[in-house]
Specification:
CATH superfamily of the largest domain: Metallo-dependent phosphatases
CATH class of the largest domain: Alpha Beta
Strand content: 15-25%
Number of domains: 2
Helix content: 25-40%
Distance between the termini: 109 Å
CATH architecture of the largest domain: 4-Layer Sandwich
CATH topology of the largest domain: Purple Acid Phosphatase, chain A, domain 2
Shape: globular
Structural class: alpha/beta
Number of helices: 4
Length: 289
Amino acid sequence: MRTPLFIRRLTDHVIRNKYCYVSLALAILLCKCTAEITGNLWANSLECNTTILPAEALPGAGPLRLALITDLHNNPEQFNKVVEQLQKAKPNFIFFGGDLVTADERFKRTRWAVSNFRKLAQIAPTFAILGNHDYEKQEQVERIFTTAGVTLLRNQAVDQKTPSGGILRIVGLGDWNEGDEAPERCMSSTGQSPAPVLVLSHDPESRWLLREYDWHLMLSGHNHGGQLGIPFAGRYLSLRSSMPAGLFDFEGGRRVLVSRGVGSIWDMRFFCTPEINIIELQQPSPAQP
């Protein structure tokens, strides 16, 4: 029986072009491997970046050195690097901005987390809030903070004495994505707070809910800088926020600092290095005669 003409032609076409198909498949495989390797290298690097703010960013608090780490996402190796950097930086206060874990990953042995948070608490008073992923393993996460001597703030405020003798009010909000924020429990109306107010809020989108409350500086994470940066531009892309990473002005002379975070989802980043944030508050200018 003779093979139909269209089958013979199809066979001839495949034979003639098999090298093209093989080359295309290899090119796709090479691009995939290159992207994974490159993305992994970016995700597992780490920078320690300093932002200098004027004294009026937290009026009356005096000169301060603050540290912000956030979005660890179950990464012991990155946490080890963080501890080493903060032992050198010697901040006055350390803040953890949420997402210790990743919701859809198993949170294995927690000794590494307890040990490293305990080391941070020995460097300086350390405060933490919950991120949206943490609610999936809330009991475990809260136990880690308690065991390590870290103060977890969930719609709570504490007053801390600063090195210069001033008072800093630290507010920690529940997560906006989980509908757990309750500023009315821990914040004063505009103009009524007796001390400068620093707000810890995992997602900077919560700023819109705080327009009528007294605060000066918000520290956030959540957006990871979109895990994608514009090469050589120092800008980051995010589809879910106008504040992917960096320092932003907000209404009433307030400021929002959004960290790129320490860990990563899918262990992939491109031109968006994970970071520790050091915030240095300058010495107030001498009063004019």
